[in-house]
Amino acid sequence: MASPSKFRSNGADPAGESALIRIEHLHKTYHMGDNHVHALRGVSLEIARGSFVAIMGASGSGKSTLMNIVGCLDKPSSGKYYLDGVDVGALDRDELADIRNKKVGFVFQQFNLLARTSALENVELPLLYSDSDKSTFKERAMEALTAVGLAERYDHHPSQLSGGQQQRVAIARSLINNPQLILADEPTGALDSKTSVEIMGIFQRLNREKGISIVVVTHEPDIAHYSDRIIQFKDGHIIVDEPVANPRNAERELAEWPEEVEEKEPVA
User: Fold this and answer.
1) How many domains, in total, are found in the chain?
2) Beta-carbon neighbour count of residue 108 at 10 Å?
3) Is residue 227 part of a domain?
4) Domain ranges, residue 244
5) What's the mean pLDDT when you consider all of the chain?
6) Are the beta carbons of 55 and 67 closer than 8 angstroms?
7) Using an 8 Å Cβ cutoff, are 232 and 200 in contact?
8) What is the three-class DSSP state of 20?
9) What is the domain-level CATH number for residue 230?
């Protein structure tokens, strides 16, 4: 398994480390028999450290392919991708797994939690693939659960948690290795409106207070506007890349959220 120093010497970014993510002329083609599917067609972009970016686009637009490459789950057919100054295309499978585990946290729409495992144990899972001291696992997992406001539920199983609480566990799991980047794929897709705002509030706080770069894939324009920048894909190309002039503030919206009034039983 490669060390960070090996990453630095193996295909270092000649432009330095001004951007956390730097992509140059990225192409990705899938070969299905005689058919060739061009998922990405010469995409170039940079994402600065500490950014909060939303990626949008219809199914088949290329956004999921880009996320897989950015998350070191796949490699481009051609072009360059540098993550924290490392040429990802030059890494072998073990090196990809190592950089993915150390630098990237993942959050998914369906939470991807182990059903028969407690919240604490779910959060600890990425540590099993690291060289961390096992005696620190519980403490680190509790710190991550505390960061998302779920420490008191550490011993609950997913079936005992609401959808929003399960997503908080998933976010805590993504934090366990102190990543520089969190990739969130439709993180509010299975949640109601208020819970979606709560989740976006957590991402905004992690971005603002911890300096973690956040990249969210979403179909929802309202969710995208919690970010500082929106990138939109179509047919493997970027068609929109613009800053958000006035990002939505989840904390303020939650403070102003109308109280729910319970319906009273009619008097007989």
Assistant:
1) 1
2) 17
3) yes
4) 50-74+103-254
5) 89
6) yes
7) no
8) strand
9) 3.40.50.300
For the chain, helix, strand, coil in percent to 5 are 35, 25, 35
- Tell the residue number behind the tokens 């403490």, with chain if given: 139
Other Cβ atoms within 10 Å of 266 Cβ, number:
5
- Beta strand 78-83 with 86-87 is antiparallel
Mean pLDDT for 148-152 is: 95
Regarding pTM above 0.85, the answer is: yes
**pLDDT tens digits for range 55-114:** 999 988 999 999 999 999 988 999 999 999 999 988 998 999 889 988 999 999 888 999
What DSSP character marks residue 12? B
C-alpha distances out from residue 95 to 1, 8, 32, 76, Å: 6, 12, 27, 16
Q: How many residues does the chain have?
A: 268
Q: Would residue 91 count as lying in a domain?
A: no
Task: Identify the pLDDT of residue 178.
Answer: 93
Beta pairing partners, 59: none
